[in-house]
């Protein structure tokens, strides 16, 4: 096994979180780097070790296989963020309609979303992405890389279309 691949695996293991591609550009030869990282992740994932390397947001992360969750949660507890129904609804509206103001989110949901937006800001799932060019210049909200990481997506194109979502619902 070459030193670069070992360093890639060790970095992901030790970090315990997402490691950006920019970080790897600083320590590895940047020529053809993204293809090499994809290959390293595939080689590791083919070992079927109960953990996998996945590409999310702007980097890579080492995670436990989701099918092992039920066996492990009773010993280690649930390490995930607990998102309320209100937070999930608000996050979905922002993800699909971004950039969007709080008032626009409220119109879609039919209820006040201020508390959910505050919670999502605190958890770094959304951020202020600017101001809308209308009277009052309300804040515009957009999703963050933490949102992508939490839901295991590389970018927003990974969100299901409305048709796909309807098919998943049954």
Task: Walk me through what this model shows.
This protein has about 170 residues and is α+β, with helices and mostly antiparallel strands. The chain folds into two domains: about 5-75, Arc Repressor Mutant, subunit A; about 85-170, Winged helix-like DNA-binding domain superfamily/Winged helix DNA-binding domain (Arc Repressor Mutant, subunit A, Orthogonal Bundle), CATH 1.10.10.10. Helix content is about 50%, strand content about 15%. The protein has helices at about 5-15, 20-25, 35-45, 70-75, 85-95, 100-110, 115-120, 145-150, 160-170; strands spanning about 20, 50-55, 60-65, 125-130, 140-145. The chain has a three-stranded antiparallel β-sheet with strand order 1-3-2. Strands 4-5 form a two-stranded antiparallel sheet. A hairpin with a 2-residue loop joins strand 2 and strand 3 (about 60-65). The radius of gyration is 19 Å and the shape is globular. It starts with a helix and ends with a helix.
Summed up:
The protein is of the alpha+beta class. Helices cover 50% and strands 15% of the residues.
Notable characteristics:
170 residues; alpha+beta; Arc Repressor Mutant, subunit A; three-stranded antiparallel beta sheet; two-stranded antiparallel ribbon; 5 strands; 15% strand
Sequence of strands across the biggest β-sheet: 1-3-2
CATH structural architecture of the largest domain: Orthogonal Bundle
Structural class by helix and strand composition: alpha+beta
**Which residues form runs of ≥5 with pLDDT under 50?**
none
């Amino acid at each position: 096994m070459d030193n670069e691949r070992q360093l890639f695996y060790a970095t992901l293991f030790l970090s315990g979180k997402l490691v950006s591609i920019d970080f790897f550009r600083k320590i590895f030869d940047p020529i053809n780097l993204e293809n090499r990282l994809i290959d390293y992740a595939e080689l590791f994932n083919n070992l079927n070790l109960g953990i996998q390397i996945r590409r999310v947001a702007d980097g890579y992360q080492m995670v436990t296989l989701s099918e092992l969750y039920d066996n492990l949660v009773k010993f280690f507890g649930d390490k995930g963020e607990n998102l309320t129904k209100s937070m999930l609804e608000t996050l979905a509206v922002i993800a699909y309609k971004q950039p969007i103001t709080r008032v626009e989110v409220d119109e879609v949901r039919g209820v006040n979303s201020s508390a959910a937006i505050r919670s999502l800001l605190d958890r770094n799932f959304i951020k202020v992405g600017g101001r809308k060019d209308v009277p009052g210049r309300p804040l515009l909200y957009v999703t963050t890389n933490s949102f992508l990481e939490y839901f295991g997506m590389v970018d927003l194109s990974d969100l299901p279309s409305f048709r796909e979502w309807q098919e998943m619902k049954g």
